Amino acid sequence: MTEVKKQFPKGFLWGGATAANQVEGAYDLDGKGLSTADMVKFIPKEERTQDHALDVSKAEIEAIIAGKVDARFPKREGVDFYHHYKEDIALFAEMGFKTFRLSLNWARIFPNGDDKEPNEKGLEFYDKVFDELLKYDIEPLVTLSHYETPLNLTLKYNGWADRRVIGFFTNYAETVFKRYKNKVKYWLTFNEINVISLSAYTGGGVLLEDAKNPLEVSYQAAHHQFVASALATKLAHEIIPGAQVGCMLARMATYPATNNPDDILKAQYENQQNLFFTDVHARGEYPSFMNRFFQENDIQIVKEIGDDEILKAHTVDFISFSYYMSLSATASPEGDRSAGNLMGGVKNEYLESSDWGWQIDPKGLRWTLNDLYSRYELPLFIVENGLGAYDKVEEDGKIHDDYRIEYLRKHIEQMKEAIADGVDLIGYTSWGPIDLVSASTSEMSKRYGFIYVDQDDWGKGTLERSRKDSFFWYKKVIETNGEDLD
Question: How many domains does the structure of the chain reveal?
């Protein structure tokens, strides 16, 4: 009889995750081109009409380029990882990181996206970052595209809506695979690929204001990303010995709000729409339930001959995902709403909420892990999970973030339970190990890190790094491979 153990496997990949546009800064240094993220301005909370501010119109972009917009663009600044990477990686090493998830800024390597030759200065920067990580035996986990498309591709081709962008992306992927083949083993193609259906500009550099059927354009762009991801997976396997390539989903696990069969069907529908993206990556084909969705929304996906064969032949090695909360769905138009990671739901009376209204559901992570593993039977990797909260710096300079420790502890406990359930979980990178610019709101006050960065929502501060209480707690968690969570 097999012994069931409630513990993390040897070699489990503990670490943290960031995105280039949220940490790097240096948006106009060393030959870097503009990206879509560089156009996202900061809107103070009291002026926002929704809980996120991501999309940018073509008119706004043109006005920004012409210098007619008086605003801050926090993702141009990040937290200056570009000049602080050695200091930051040393702090990650002090915590004992086994892996660090970061993204490459495509426009730092190919400033216009469709350039014939890469920008050597950009390639050199990531060489230095990888060398610094490997100095401390920290395994890089690299995302090729994390909410960042070279702006030229948006203005010239309308981003991923144009099939030609597949070739520009695979050229970029081949370039970095060849350059870093001896330094990087773990790769992700597109961050939270399903977000292209919620914010086409964020997920694919696509402008929808002139589209007759915006949903059709978004899903066509998603198809182009599926093909590009499969081709990149093929290239990685050919170029890098032992390469492991994963997809990445913003997992929006959805419960029915009640036992009403209509709510149950609504929740099933929401989960299917979410998991459609991993179905294509992991199974290599479009699931049949999407046929009705496409028909009812007048969507016709244009495929070229050979696309289906490419998707089938080059599926991913593992599935990675973000998990911050669960959602609840109802067929009723009434009910209190909850906020969420780009998408909200009906409030769940059994759950508490974060400072930003995201409902906290550690047991939902166990449910999610079991659900994904039973569906795909592929290794799983949690590459984003964390608590965005207001942090207070005490007079002695300390930050007592017990709320963050409690959030992470409860989620890690449920990861253990899922492993005991039989789930093959290979790693965990908490979101934002160092404070960074929020993806959804461009705020600094929404802090996730174990490491505090002295910078406010208006870009003021010394950028000095300091350790929060959670820094020392997470160090102990890694040292004991998840055994000591007190």
Answer: 1
Whether 7 maps to a domain, the answer reads no
Distance separating alpha carbons of residues 169 and 160, to the nearest angstrom: 10
- State the residue range of the domain holding 415: 13-479
Domain presence at residue 484: no
Annotated active-site residue 296? The verdict is no
Cα torsion angle, 126, 127, 130, 132, sign: negative
Contacts of 219 (CB under 8 A, 6+ apart): 197, 294, 299, 301
Can you tell me the distance from the alpha carbon of 83 to that of 134, in angstroms, rounded to the nearest whole number? 18
Exposed e or buried b per residue across 225-261, where buried means at least 16 C-beta atoms within 10 angstroms of its C-beta: bbbbbbbbbbbbbebbeebbbbbbbbbbbbbbbeeee
Residue 304 placed within a domain: yes
How far is Cα 326 from Cα 328, in angstroms, rounded to an integer? 7
* H helix intervals, 158-304: 164-179, 200-204, 214-239, 261-283, 289-296
Distance CA 48, CA 50 (A): 5
Q: Report the SS3 class of residue 239.
A: helix
Q: Which residues contact 195 (CB under 8 A, 6 or more apart)?
A: 147, 202, 203, 250, 342
Measured on CA atoms in the order 112, 116, 119, 123, is the torsion positive or negative? positive
Calpha distance 326→251 (Å, rounded): 9
The CATH number for 279's domain is 3.20.20.80
Among residues 94, 384, 406, 443, which one is catalytic? 384
Nearest to 445 by CA among 456, 431, 429: 456
| Sign of the alpha-carbon dihedral angle for 69, 74, 77, 82 | negative
Helix (H) or strand (E) holding 379: none
As a whole number of Å, the end-to-end CA separation of the chain is 32
Per-residue pLDDT of the chain (486 residues; tens, 9 = 90+): 677 778 999 999 999 999 999 999 999 999 999 999 999 999 887 777 665 567 899 999 999 999 999 999 999 999 999 999 999 999 999 999 999 999 999 999 999 999 999 999 999 999 999 999 999 999 999 999 999 999 999 999 999 999 999 999 999 999 999 999 999 999 999 999 999 999 999 999 999 999 999 999 999 999 999 999 999 999 999 999 999 999 999 999 999 999 999 999 999 999 999 999 999 999 999 999 999 999 999 999 999 999 999 999 999 999 999 999 999 999 887 655 555 555 556 888 888 887 878 889 999 999 999 999 999 999 999 999 999 999 999 999 999 999 999 999 999 999 999 999 999 999 999 999 999 999 988 999 999 999 999 999 999 999 999 999 999 999 999 999 999 999
Domain-embedded: residue 118: yes
